[in-house]
Design goal:
With 384 residues, the protein is an alpha/beta fold. The protein has helices spanning 21-26, 35-48, 53-71, 89-104, 125-129, 146-160, 162-185, 188-208, 211-227, 231-259, 267-300, 307-333, 337-383; strands at residues 11-17, 32-33, 77-83, 111-116, 134-139.
Amino acid sequence: MSRKVGSEIKTLVICVDRDNDIGEKAGLKTPIIGKEASLSAATKLALADPEDSDVNAIFEAIRLCEQLKATEENAGVEIVLIAGDKKAGVEADRKIGKELEKVLSKTAVESAILVSDGAEDEWIIPILGSRVKIDSVRRVVVKQSEQLESTFYLIKRLFEDPKFSRTFLPPVGIILFLLALSLLFNLSDKVVGIILAFSGIYILLKGLGHESDLINFIDSTKQALYSGKISFVSYICAIVLLLAGTSQGIVEYTGYIEELSEASERVLLTGMVYYLKGAIWWYVGAALAPLIGRMMNMLIEREKIVRQWAIIFSVIASGLILWGGSECVILLTENNHLMGYLYLFLSILGAIILSFMGVAISRYVKGTVIGEEEVVTEAETAMK
């Protein structure tokens, strides 16, 4: 500490350097107290880095301290420079708190005025406010760059926010990557279709509140890779099937557009039906692949497969309904009403039968597991 603090100080002008440029660039130790010591610190820091905004903050703190001394009698005003750590974050805030307590332990300060060079330093207001009453906060930014610095800081905080970065950045990155591929290989039409399909799926998941399922799928893939499980291969198969289904759906969609170029009013709705017809069974396979991989892992680990049976049959039943519905719509557009309704009826009937089969198998296996557990329990009781 550069100067001993007197007990007559009532107002403390605190200049905060959260990333410790004073120590890293000028080689000074904080806290630094007093006008002369602060002037010397500002001069050394300016010589080390004339573009550092902390220099302006220190001079503003000195000016404010002198102004208060001149306008208020018996003000008891003093300036103190406090620094954090170059890594910022928790370590910097703890160091700031310790230095402030060190200053306050030697004087009866009634209030404080915070001077900072930007919004980042103002994050420590709660830390200072918990130890001394803060009367005012002065933010010092070079006039020509105030808006630029504020915008840059806001963007920086958004990118550092895990919720924003995980939600916004991955889709944007994938879209930019696909656009780059379209420019390199001259596949603009197909890539735009893939981007629209990906964006639609993501918006749908986001709207339904299931966007976490995609993140869970990625995490499960990582765990399967690190643990050497068979499910990792099934995840790769699911991705390949998903891409193949999307490609096949696009082929069906583009083929329909070429055939009905004159009836453009029906392209959107019926085209999506053709897309669904071409892609649905690929998507069903993509949904079944991770389930089958999980079941194989459970067999290897000698675990009982119960719930997975119902899920598998439900996925197949859902695919059957969607396929039958798409065939029905296509046949209706071709004025073949009888076959269209027949496809729809048979697909619904088949889906119901498959669902009942899945539920029956799951209940049977569950009853078998419960029976085995009861036998084991009775055996253990008899042994005791």
